[in-house]
Amino acid sequence: MSEDNRATVQGMYNAFGRGDIATVLAALDPEVEWWEAENFIYADGNPYVGPQAVLQGVFARIGAEWEGFSVSPKEVLDAGDTVVGRGYYSGKFRGTGRDVRAQFAHLFEFRDGKVVKFQQYTDTAQFRDATA
């Protein structure tokens, strides 16, 4: 099952890259807890509970506020019921025209094949500076 979890996360990254947010949301448990990094620009809604909250509080804001935003995983690691994604965010904040290229680590916790908890870690200072 853990290899299935790793494949699910890889599929989520691939879907996000295609703009297929419906597939990303379908991988989430109805009661998923989604945590943005402390002091991150979208942490104001932590925890986002449920796919609709993630869509409105995170993904819709990214789509509205960023040009060319991408999530580029370099590694997706199987740790049983937890999967770790490691890579880079990049994009240009529309309000300032400033770019970011920031490392990230994502922890995905699974139960019964669905993501029940997500935790993001990233360079929050880069995002703060880009949006200021």
Q: How would you describe this structure to a colleague?
A:
Helices cover 35% and strands 44% of the residues. The protein has 132 residues and is α+β, with helices and mostly antiparallel strands. A 6-stranded mixed β-sheet has the order 2-1-6-5-4-3.
Going by helix content, strand content and strand pairing, the class is alpha+beta
Give the helices and strands as they follow along the chain.
HHEEHEEEEH
How much helical structure, as a percent, in the residues? 25-40%
Gyration radius from CA atoms, angstroms: 14 Å
The coarse silhouette is globular
Q: Would you kindly provide a brief summary of this structure?
A:
The protein is an alpha+beta fold and 132 residues long.
